Every structure is written in C-alpha cells, then in structure tokens.
C-alpha cells in the first residue's frame, strides 16, 4: 500500500499540471474525455485508496481534476466530498444546457463556496467555458 501511494506521489510530482497546461482553455470535449479517463482511474484506484490519498498533502493531479469536475466519483469518507459536491448540480446543469443563466448559477455557487480563490482548475474552467 505504501509503495502504491509513493508511486502516486511521484507521478503527481513528475506529471503534475504545469503552468503552461493551466493556460490552455478548457473545453467541453476535453471535459468529456477527462470524465471517461477519471472514471477508469478512480475505479482502478478503489475507494479505500482514494480515501487514503485524500488524507495526504501531496495528491495526484487526477484528484484535482475529479474534485473540480467529477466529485461524484469520490467515495463516501473522502475528506472533501460533500464540499466538492455542493456545486456539482449547478455545474452539471450548465454542462447539460450551456446558457448564461446556468453559467451564472454555477459561478455564483463557486464564488459562495470559495470566495475569490477557487481551485485553479475551477477558476480556469469559469474563464474558458463562459458562454
């Protein structure tokens, strides 16, 4: 188990999202591809290890992606699951029907939750996905 977590930490450090990647626009097509790969990744890792990963400081980049866009993949007991799920309904509604009204609801939820400092991926998505 410790070797498994160590591999995740090394992978997160070596292949972490670079600042150049963070500047690339996030698109709906990219989100769809990410969702498919994050579902596979979360299933492969398993609930017990996801909970353990949530308790460590240095987390793999996949956790950042899941928390930002697909928190339903997090198991019960993951440290921030409820918090991360709080804006998911408005994000899902916006994703289903891309309108300025749905975008505004999602943005308001994020702002209410994080104030002016949302996670980097969420901040980037708010800029990139604005209709």
Question: How is this structure best described in words?
Answer:
- The chain is mostly helical and 131 residues long.
- 70% of the residues lie in helices and 0% in strands.
Which characteristics define this entry?
131 residues, mainly alpha, 70% helix
Please outline the helices and strands.
Blueprint lengths: L1 H14 L3 H5 L4 H18 L1 H8 L6 H9 L11 H5 L2 H9 L3 H15 L5 H9 L3
Helix pairs in contact: 3-5, 7-8
Domains, number:
1
Q: Main β-sheet: number of strands, strand sense, barrel status?
A: none
Contiguous runs where pLDDT drops below 50 for at least 5 residues: 12-21
Beta-strand residue percentage: under 5%
Shape: globular
As a whole number of angstroms, the C-alpha radius of gyration is: 15 Å
Mean pLDDT: 88
Number of separate helices:
9
Order of helices and strands: HHHHHHHHH
What structural category arises from helix and sheet content? mainly alpha
CA(first)-CA(last) distance: 44 Å
| Proportion in helices | over 70%
Structure, briefly:
This protein has helices at residues 2-15, 19-23, 28-45, 47-54, 61-69, 81-85, 88-96, 100-114, 120-128.
């Amino acid at each position: 188990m410790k070797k498994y977590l160590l591999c995740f930490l090394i992978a997160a450090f070596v292949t972490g999202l670079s600042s150049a990647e963070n500047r690339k626009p996030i698109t709906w097509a990219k989100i769809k591809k990410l969702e498919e790969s994050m579902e596979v990744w979360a299933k492969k890792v398993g609930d017990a290890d996801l909970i353990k990963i949530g308790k460590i400081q240095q987390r793999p980049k996949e956790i950042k992606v899941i928390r930002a866009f697909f928190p339903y993949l997090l198991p019960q007991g993951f440290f921030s699951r409820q918090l991360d799920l709080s804006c998911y309904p408005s994000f899902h509604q916006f994703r289903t029907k891309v309108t300025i009204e749905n975008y505004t609801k999602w943005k308001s939820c994020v702002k209410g939750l994080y104030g002016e400092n949302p996670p980097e991926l969420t901040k980037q998505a708010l800029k990139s996905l604005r209709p």
